[in-house]
């Protein structure tokens, strides 16, 4: 298989918007912590850094460009890794809020969720009797009655203002088979050109479950829609499913994504102390599989990115 012979791109999603401070003392919250963990992850072998922002005062997700500006320039000055800014933000943010920093930064990459969906971790609220901050419990419980919105018009808008006008390419996050068909629709409409970078997301309540069979189905469906070798795929396994699914994805010829956004753990019952620990673990697994890890420059070439010099900052 041609894809299986390529080097493997490691993406690290540093903090996200799902987990809250109570869930792990190692979750990056401040700009200093986000920058430090991102830089360490890059040094450990991550070629792409997927970034969200947090309010420095209490750790809640934020889309404020002023907060992003406190850590993104430092990361860019300290590493050659590809900067990938979220356009997902959180379920409580408007599209305008989610796009505020990407449109300012014009990064090489952004994430793009390929559909509206139920997206929730509300059962996690039952695990904690005490919370560090007043916002956390209602935030987690409230996901039960929220929808992550990305309509066809929203996606079209993002593809136009970021993709066509800024030259940003996308990590297409596909949580279900229907998201692949939505992606194929936009390809047919001429709004997306290859190379495609498809991030298969498994294990989120509201999306595909973390069954190995679902990963095979996701990949075989992408093969039919885009042609085997006509795209590059990556695997994201939520929570305890992270390392097993990533290993399986790598065997299937895919790339991998780790980071405390996706899982707070390094192993069973063992919280990861930083994102770099997860990067080093998946790198050891890749080494044992005789798979080579891509450098940032190799990842740029594989994904057809515009290069870091073309970003705004």
Automatic annotation (TrEMBL):
<dbReference type="InterPro" id="IPR013785">
    <property type="entry name" value="Aldolase_TIM"/>
</dbReference>
<dbReference type="Pfam" id="PF05853">
    <property type="entry name" value="BKACE"/>
</dbReference>
<keyword id="KW-0479">Metal-binding</keyword>
<dbReference type="InterPro" id="IPR008567">
    <property type="entry name" value="BKACE"/>
</dbReference>
<protein>
    <submittedName>
        <fullName>3-keto-5-aminohexanoate cleavage protein</fullName>
    </submittedName>
</protein>
<keyword id="KW-0808">Transferase</keyword>
<keyword id="KW-0862">Zinc</keyword>
């Amino acid at each position: 298989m041609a894809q299986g012979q390529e080097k493997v791109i490691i993406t690290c999603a540093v903090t996200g918007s799902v987990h809250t401070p109570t869930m792990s003392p190692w979750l990056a919250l401040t700009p200093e912590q986000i920058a430090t963990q991102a830089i360490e992850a890059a040094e450990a072998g991550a070629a792409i850094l997927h970034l969200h922002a947090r309010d420095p005062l209490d750790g809640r997700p934020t889309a404020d460009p002023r907060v992003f500006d406190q850590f993104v320039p430092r990361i860019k000055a300290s590493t050659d890794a590809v900067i990938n800014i979220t356009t997902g933000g959180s379920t409580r943010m408007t599209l305008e809020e989610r796009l505020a920093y990407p449109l300012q930064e014009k990064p090489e990459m952004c994430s793009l969720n390929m559909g509206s969906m139920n997206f929730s971790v509300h059962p996690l609220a039952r695990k904690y009797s005490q919370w560090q901050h007043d916002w956390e419990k209602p935030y987690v419980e409230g996901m039960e009655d929220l929808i992550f919105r990305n309509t066809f018009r929203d996606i079209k808008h993002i593809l136009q203002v970021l993709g066509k006008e800024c030259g940003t390419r996308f990590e297409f996050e596909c949580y279900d088979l229907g998201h692949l068909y939505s992606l194929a629709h936009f390809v047919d409409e001429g709004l997306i050109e290859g190379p495609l970078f498809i991030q298969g997301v498994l294990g989120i309540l509201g999306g595909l479950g973390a069954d190995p069979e679902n990963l095979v189905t996701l990949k075989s469906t992408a093969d039919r829609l885009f042609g085997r070798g006509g795209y590059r795929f990556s695997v994201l396994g939520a929570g305890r499913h992270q390392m097993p699914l990533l290993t399986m994805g790598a065997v299937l010829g895919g790339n991998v994504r780790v980071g405390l956004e996706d899982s707070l753990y390094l192993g069973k019952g063992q919280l990861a102390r930083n994102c770099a620990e997860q990067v080093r673990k998946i790198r050891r697994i890749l080494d044992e599989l005789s798979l080579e890890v891509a450098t940032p420059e190799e990842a740029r070439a594989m994904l057809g990115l515009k290069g870091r010099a073309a970003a705004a900052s």
